[in-house]
Specification:
seven-stranded mixed β-sheet, 261 residues, two-stranded antiparallel sheet
Amino acid sequence: MKYKTLVLFLCCMTLHIQASIQAIVFAAGKSTRFDSDTPKLLTHIGKQAMVLYPVKAAAQLDMPITMVIGFKKELVKQEIVQALPQHDITFTVQDKQLGTGHALQCTKEFWHADDILIMNGDHPLTNAKLLQHFIDEHKKTNAQFSILTAQAEPNCAYGRIVKKDGVTRIVEAVDFKKNPEDYPLVNAGFYLISRTFLEEHIDKLWLHTNKNEYYITDLIEIASKHNVDVNLVHVPFDYVYGVNTQEEFLHAQTLLQKHIQ
């Protein structure tokens, strides 16, 4: 009897831990650089559509998921619902492509967990083990804001993480071409942020008029300016490899075969 009670208690603990986190996956973009008639996120890599890797990883950890869809939204929704018909997945539409910050703003009505895990749908190396490590490191430090980061590889066009004068910010790829060695850590595009922080600051994002977009990365600078420590969680670069072009897609296929074996 005592054994059964202990098992039930541990199960409830696990459910509580996972219920305290929900996942948001960005899957609304048109992906013009991918140069394909098929939506990039629905392109099969390995045995399934690209977008299903981060979605299934979150589902494996029993997290509720909110998908931000837009371009070819019905096709994207159909793919996800068919793959995970029993899972708790909600959908919101980003009608205008106004950046990652705006995509996150589109999910506000769905926030209910203590922490929000934010991912892009074009990272096919994402798996449950990676996400669990991220969550563990986030909880270990009682962080309000955590970012996955990796050591930059040659010629990668990721934004880089910069800490200066107590402020953490992201320097975009176009701004560090002359001296990339000064910015060795990439922003992998995975975030764990407390709901209370997001509720207080999500509407403080500003419009970048050069691209007419709101950037989720500006939340990092906002956090630093409000003395909220930005926790960096380091992982191997392979596992945060994203796909924007056909060339990157081919490389991602190679990485997937390497790590599945």
